[in-house]
Design brief:
The complex is a heterodimer. Chain A is built from 13 helices and 2 strands. Chain A is an all-alpha fold.
């Protein structure tokens, strides 16, 4: 769909004011409505990176698809991975309404220009990691995404609502895996603890930098692209997750974690922001592997896309010839 | 931002009837080589949990849409015809519900 493009001179200040009034009144912005260019760009960046994260997120889980411990777990994992692919597609399609093509987004991902969530640059070393990912990574994603269901951009908000409905199963199946392992043999429980140890901090990093260190946040909050701050969402996730870990009988790897009666929240330790920056800038354990797998999958599928287009063209010509 | 999409499969808009008795509703879009592929893709992408009993796909380029810029003038002819609404008419209370 085309962005609005009229040649008539416009008063951008007045338009922007009207736009903000709409946003303040909780009226959703739709694709053909006027919007500030920076709003459009911020959304394209955020939404396409969100889509990339869904798609790249299939890779660490795919690692265990052939080695799932039972047919049930395998079927569940397959369904979850299909959902992630589907979520990527909802989000790509919503982002295209802002005037960027699918190919351009793929190109940005494949050349490393666009980022995806850093969490997927960590390796999945044991089956318990599949449990930890569902429980923690999807749990953190849901916390983020529930807030985004009220995003000011209509297509994004609608995609989020659909995604949130489906994600709940992801978190529950992950927790169930953790529960089964935590109640299993000492070795299995140790695997569950090891998975929690490795995934806890990267999950907290998913909420992004601290508010004091997130310069773009204020504008995004004003535009209601973002509805809650990084730290608020992170706190929410910690508060919800600590009791779940206690029920599992597992220990969250944070010596500073304790209930703060006064605040009514859990206090927790500082994230290793050096590690965060390292992984974001491409030096995580799996950055290269993930990107290579994505590029290979895209290029490997090219002949299928070409054949489908050639077939469609042939069918079109045949029906034209039949009609003549 | 280029809109160079000549190598892309065409874009289709997807509409789904969630159950008989309800209208088809726009749910999003997807890329497909032709309408038939768009239908099967729509099934896979938008109805993984029996969200639909009927799917329509329409090439995005075949949709003509009104422009939000016209808002005022485009809808104006209807905005001042309050007599089209039931509340325009005063019926004595004794007559009862009508």
């Amino acid at each position: 769909m085309d962005a609005i493009n009229t040649d008539a001179p416009r008063d951008d200040d007045a338009l922007e004011k009207a736009f903000q009034t709409k946003v303040d009144a909780e009226t959703r912005i739709e694709p053909k409505d006027w919007m500030p260019e920076k709003y459009r760009h911020t959304l394209i960046r955020q939404m396409s990176q969100h889509a990339h994260s869904e798609v790249v997120g299939m890779l660490p889980e795919g690692n265990w698809l052939t080695r799932a411990p039972s047919l049930k777990r395998k079927a569940v994992l397959m369904a979850k991975i299909q959902d992630e692919g589907g979520h990527g597609l909802y989000l790509y399609s919503a982002t295209e309404t802002l005037g960027i093509s699918r190919d351009e987004m793929f190109d940005q991902l494949h050349t490393g220009k666009a980022k995806y969530s850093s969490i997927f640059n960590y390796p999945t070393l044991s089956w318990a990691d599949i449990g930890a990912i569902g429980w923690l990574v999807d749990g953190a994603a849901i916390t983020n995404q529930i807030a985004l269901c009220r995003c000011s951009y209509g297509p994004y908000a609608r995609a989020m609502i659909k995604i949130c409905k489906e994600e709940s199963f992801h978190q529950r199946q992950g927790y169930e895996i953790m529960l089964t392992m935590a109640q299993g043999t000492p070795e299995q429980k140790a695997m569950a603890q090891d998975a929690l140890d490795r995934w806890w901090w990267p999950s907290l990093m998913m909420f992004g930098p601290n508010d004091s260190n997130s310069p773009q946040s204020a504008q995004s909050m004003k535009w209601k692209i973002k509805r809650q701050s990084n730290d608020e969402l992170r706190q929410k996730f910690v508060d919800a997750t600590v009791p779940q870990a206690e029920y599992l009988g597992l220990r969250i790897p944070d010596d500073n974690l304790k209930w703060n009666e006064e605040r009514g929240h859990y206090d927790f330790g500082e994230i290793d922001w050096v590690e965060f920056k390292n992984v974001v800038s491409g030096n995580g354990l799996c950055n290269r592997e993930r990107l290579k797998d994505r590029v290979d999958a895209h290029e490997g599928g090219k002949w299928v896309r070409d054949a489908a287009l050639a077939y469609a063209e042939k069918q079109k010509q045949r029906s034209a010839a039949a009609a003549a | 931002m280029s809109n160079d999409s000549k190598n892309e499969l065409p874009l289709y808009e997807v509409f789904i009837r969630s159950k008989n008795g309800l209208d088809h509703k726009h749910v999003g879009s997807l890329h497909a080589a032709d309408a038939e592929m768009a239908l099967t893709n729509a099934r896979d992408v938008y109805t993984r949990r029996s969200e639909g009993v009927s799917i329509w796909v329409v090439k995005t380029t075949d949709i003509t849409a009104s422009s939000p810029d016209d808002k005022g003038s485009f809808y104006e002819p209807n905005d001042d015809k309050m007599y089209r609404h039931p509340t325009f008419y005063e019926i004595p209370e004794e007559v009862g519900h009508m």
